[in-house]
Amino acid sequence: MWAQKVVAAISPCPGDVFLEIGPGTGALTLPLAATGAPVLAVEIDRDLVAALAGRVPPNVTIMSGDILQTDVLPFLSGLEPQRPAQWSGPAQPARRFRAVGNLPYGISTPLLFRLIDIHRRHGFFADATLMLQREVADRLLAVPATRDYGVLTVMTAMHARVTRVLDLPPGAFSPPPKVHSTVVRLTFGPSAVRVSDEALFERLVRTMFTQRRKTLTNALKPFDAASAEVIARAGFDGRRRPETLQLTEIARLAELFAVRARTPVL
Fold first, then answer.
1. Cα–Cα distance for residue pair 99/78, rounded to 1 Å
2. How many domains is the chain built from?
3. pLDDT bucket at 48, cuts 50 / 70 / 90
4. What pLDDT score was predicted for residue 41?
5. How far apart are CA 86 and CA 70, in angstroms?
6. Do both 31 and 78 map to the same domain?
7. What is the pLDDT of residue 86?
8. In the beta sheet, which residues pair with residue 41?
9. By CB distance 3.0 to 4.6 Å, which of 75, 128, 212, 242 could disulfide with 99?
C-alpha cells in the first residue's frame, strides 16, 4: 500500500512530532500513528473529521480547520513524544517537528509557500514529506533554463533542500486518479544564499518570472527604472532570459537593488 511506503520513507524516529495536512479518511494517519509518534492531523472537511475521530488512537489529535488559515504551532508545541519502550538513549528524546501530507493540487502551491513562511519566521519544522501531483514536484526540482523552473523553485530552494522520495502511478491508489503522484521531502535549513531584504528578493523573483521569456533588461523594467544599470553592475548580459539565472545570481541582483534602494538620492 502506498501509505506504508510513504511512512517507511518518512522513517519516524523517537522524538518526532508530526503535523499531518489533510488526513482525509486516514490512509496515512493510521500507519503513521502506529509508530507511536504524536500526530496533529488538520482536516478542513468536518464530515471527514467526524468519521476519522472515532478511528484514531490516543496519540492522534484531529483538528477541524483550514491549514492555510489555522495557526497550528501552539497546538504542535503542546505535544510531547512518547519515550519508546526499547529506547536506550536520553530519558526524553529530543523533540523534532515534521510535516507530512497528501496535498490536493488546488492548495499545494500556497501550502508550500506557507510552510516556507513558517520556517522563515519560526524555524519550526525540520522537514516536510509531501505527496504532490507530479507536475508540482517537477517545479520544485527544476533547474534553470527549463520550463518548470520558476518562482516556486527559487523560493523553495532559498530555504529547503528538495529531494524526490517516491514516484507513484495512478494504479497505486484505489480508485486510481487521473494523475501521477510524487513524494518529495523538503529539508529545511539556513538560507541557501544571503539576502538583506527578503521581501525585495521575493518581489524581484516574481517580477522576473512574470516576464520569463523577455530579456532580463526588459523583464526588470517594471521592477526598477534603473534595472539595466544594476544588471550591468552585476556583470550579467541583459539579453539573458530570467529563467536562466541561478539562485546565487538572483541573490546578487537582489543585493544590488537593495543597496540602490538604501542609497539616498541627492
1. 16
2. 2
3. very high
4. 97
5. 36
6. yes
7. 61
8. 20, 62
9. 128
pLDDT of residue 4 exceeding 60: yes
Q: Which of 65, 21, 55, 66 is nearest to 39 (CA)?
A: 21
- State whether 172 and 206 are in the same domain: no
> Shortest CA distance to 194 belongs to which of 158, 223, 220?
158
Does the pLDDT value for residue 82 go beyond 80?
Answer: no
Average pLDDT for residues 177-186, to the nearest whole number?
88
- Set of cell numbers at residue 8: 517507511
Q: 125: phi > 0 → left, psi -120 to 50 → alpha, else beta; which? A: beta
Same domain, residue pair 83 and 148: yes
Question: How far apart are the C-alpha atoms of 9 and 85, rounded to whole Å?
Answer: 23
- Domain holding 147, by residue range, is 2-188
Q: Is residue 193 part of a domain?
A: no
Buried b (16+ CB within 10 A) or exposed e, 87-102: eeeeeebeebbbbbbb
Q: Which three cell numbers stand for residue 235?
A: 556583470
Rounded to an integer, what distance in angstroms lies between the CA atom of residue 12 and that of residue 98? 9
Question: All 3 cell numbers of residue 196?
Answer: 538583506
Mean pLDDT of all residues in 26-35: 94
In angstroms, the CA 177 to CA 185 distance is 22
Averaged pLDDT of the chain: 91
Q: What is the pLDDT of residue 263?
A: 73
Average confidence (pLDDT) over 160-167: 96
C-alpha span between 32 and 3 (Å, rounded): 9
Dig out the grid coordinates for 151 from the structure: 518562482
Which one-letter DSSP state was computed for residue 242? G
Is 22:102 a contact under the CB 8 Å cutoff?
A: yes
Q: How far apart are CA 59 and CA 80, in angstroms?
A: 10
Write down the pTM of the prediction: 0.91
% of the chain exceeding 70 in pLDDT: 92
